[in-house]
Amino acid sequence: MLPSLTGQSPDALAAWLEQAGQPAFRAKQILDWIWKKQVTSIDAMTNLPAALRETLATSFRLSSLEHTHTQGSEDTTRKFLFKLHDGRYVESVLIPANPALYGESSDRRTLCVSSQVGCAYGCKFCASGLAGFTRNLDASEIAGQVLAAEQIGGDRVDSLVFMGMGEPLANLDNLLEAIALITGPETLHLGARHLTISTSGLVPQIRKLAQHPQQIRLAISLHGATDEVRSKIMPVNNKWPVNELFDALNDWNARKKQHLTLEYILIKDVNDSLEQAAILAKRARAIRAKVNLIPYNTVEGLDWIRPSDTRCQAFRKVLRDAGITANLRLEKGHDIDAACGQLRLKQETEEGIISAPAR
Ligand code: SAH
Ligand code: SF4
User: Fold this and answer.
1) Cα 212 to Cα 179: distance, rounded to the nearest angstrom
2) Atom of ligand 2 nearest to the CA of 234
3) Are residues 119 and 243 both part of a single domain?
4) For the whole model, what pTM was predicted?
5) Domain end point (choices 13, 29, 59)
6) In this structure, are 76 and 51 located in the same domain?
7) In terms of domains, do 42 and 129 share one?
8) Is residue 358 part of a domain?
9) What spacing in Å lies between the alpha carbon of 221 and ligand 1's midpoint?
10) Whose CA is nearest to atom 22 of ligand 1?
11) Residue with the nearest Cα to atom 13 of ligand 1?
12) Vertex 321: Cα angle to 315 and 322 (nearest 5)
């Protein structure tokens, strides 16, 4: 399998051109075609000599993703399914605005990006965890989702959330390589402040990322304010319990300017008691975090239930009364299986790559 051009850093491309006996200025031309003009074939790079285009085509693929499917929804959220070179699938979701970040009237476009095929962390409520872990995505497969979304959608993506399939911090090296492509001035050039990494709470990697020089945002999938509740639905909590996690978040705060976000899915009779809300409020205040409440998105094959709207609002009120910024996330894409991993699970099950999830 040829390496893809979208996975080449400017330095790697410059080194390749040098050993191919090509002048250095070709690097900028090629990067412009890939990332700025966003062509879909090497042949379309018309200011390169034909011989160089031929050498490029025998040495590289242009992209490592094949777009196979777009699913739309009533609220104009769109979900893209991509086939990878080994026949596996990943998905990205384009969300017209992220009201939690920008307010309801914004026309900003947020892309939800996958970082792995499957996930090894096995959270009990999550479609991505259902079929286990297959492999890490490489940098071109991660950054390529953004490029592909811009090509398909015909418009720039303004911000990214690493909340698709997989645990991004379990694939930290490739993730950082992808972020270099996404934020680099010669490549996609999106500001680091517009990137949010979501993690289920991998403490050593949070500490490592805290030392990264770019101002990337961090969101924590908390989903339980105490060890008792969190451990029931997130096995990762047995390894890094809530107090250890919050120690790492304090360390993050000491090094970073941006406020942390706590993500909290509301699941009926599991983590939606007002007592949990009160503890969550204390925890959020201790690290100056805002809270995103997400009513559980039903996953086929799983029995968890979303609480009533009244209960979700009562939960939010406890947080707000305690002075915490708490959004109750407006449904985006509920009707297109937008919760992470669901479309890919469907596709791979249909193709017999994985067997249907057991109840
Ligand atoms: N592994 C990372 C990022 C991917 S999951 C993490 O766990 O943070 C992105 C978000 O979707 C997480 O907050 C996750 O808990 C949430 N999620 C998973 N399944 C969901 C569901 N069925 N309904 C609503 N949110 C879900
Ligand atoms: Fe993995 Fe995140 Fe899903 Fe948990 S919620 S199984 S960490 S993708």
Assistant:
1) 11
2) 4
3) yes
4) 0.92
5) 59
6) no
7) no
8) no
9) 7
10) 297
11) 221
12) 100
